[in-house]
Specification:
Number of strands: 12
Largest sheet: 5 strands, parallel
Low-confidence stretches: none
Radius of gyration: 18 Å
Order of helices and strands: EHEHEHEHEHEEEEHEHHEE
Helix content: 40-55%
Strand content: 15-25%
Structural class: alpha/beta
Length: 230
C-alpha cells in the first residue's frame, strides 16, 4: 500500500489525519518530531507518495526537514503551519513545498489538497524523458535539472515547472490564471500573487547567468511569455 508520512508533534492531529488518510487508501506513517520524520522517510521512501509536514516541530523544524528531503527527493510535500503570514507561506514554497495548509484546518480540506497534488503528478508521469534546449538553456524535467551554459541553476520544483511551461510553449502568452491552472492545478486554493512571487524569484536566479538568447517577458495587463531572441 502507498504510504503518507504525517509529521506533527500534536498526537491528536496525527490521529485525525491518519484516519482520513486510510479512507483515501493511504497507509499513514507518523512522526512526532523532525528528526523522526527524516528517519521514517529514509526507512520508507520507496513507498511514501506524500509528506504532510508541520512547521513548528521539536528537534528539527519543518522548513529544515523540507530542505533536507528536497536534496534527495521530489516527493510531494504539503506544509502545515499555525502561522498565516505570507513570509511563512512563501518560504515553504520557495524551499520546495508543493502546497501549504494553515491551522486550524479541516482534515477533509487537507485530503482534498493531497488528492489534487497526486492527480497533478499522475498527469505528468506519462511524459517521461522531457528534455528541452533553447539557446544556452537546458531543462531536464524528469531530473528537475536546469542549466545555463552548462552551469546548474538551483531552482525549486515549482520554479522549474514554471520555466518549463513557459519555454515549452514560447509562442504563447500565459495569464496568471493559466499558470496557476497549469502548475498548481485548477483546484489550488491560492491566488495570482503566487505566480508573480515565483516569477520574481525565478528571474532573480536565472539572471545571475547571462542568457542573451532568451528572457521571461512580462506582457503588461496579460501575463508572461518566454521570448526567444533572434
Amino acid at each position: 500500500m502507498k504510504k503518507i508520512l504525517i509529521a506533527d508533534d500534536n498526537k491528536q492531529i496525527t490521529t485525525i489525519l491518519s484516519g482520513y488518510a486510510k479512507k483515501e487508501g493511504l497507509e499513514p506513517v507518523v512522526a512526532l518530531d523532525g528528526a523522526e520524520a527524516l528517519d521514517k522517510y529514509a526507512r520508507y521512501q520507496e513507498e511514501i507518495v506524500m509528506v504532510l509536514l508541520d512547521v513548528m516541530m521539536p528537534q528539527v523544524d519543518g522548513f529544515e526537514v523540507c530542505r533536507r528531503l528536497r536534496r534527495e527527493s521530489m516527493v510531494p510535500i504539503i506544509m502545515i503551519t499555525a502561522r498565516g503570514e505570507d513570509y511563512d507561506k512563501i518560504m515553504g514554497l520557495d524551499i520546495g513545498a508543493d502546497d501549504y495548509v494553515i491551522k486550524p484546518f479541516s482534515a477533509s480540506e487537507v485530503m482534498a489538497r493531497v488528492r489534487a497534488v497526486l492527480r497533478r503528478i499522475q498527469v505528468q508521469e506519462p511524459a517521461a524523458k522531457n528534455v528541452l534546449t533553447c539557446a544556452n538553456l537546458f531543462i531536464n524535467l524528469d531530473k528537475y535539472e536546469v542549466q545555463i551554459d552548462g552551469q546548474e541553476v538551483p531552482l525549486t520544483k515549482k520554479e522549474i515547472e514554471l520555466l518549463w511551461t513557459l519555454a515549452k510553449n514560447n509562442t504563447k502568452v500565459f495569464s496568471r490564471d493559466n499558470l496557476l491552472d497549469s502548475i498548481w492545478g485548477y483546484d489550488y486554493f491560492g491566488d495570482s500573487r503566487t505566480v508573480d512571487s515565483h516569477i520574481k524569484r525565478l528571474r532573480a536566479k536565472v539572471d545571475k547567468l547571462e542568457h542573451p538568447g532568451w528572457e521571461i517577458k512580462t506582457i503588461w495587463g496579460v501575463g508572461y511569455r518566454f521570448e526567444v531572441k533572434a
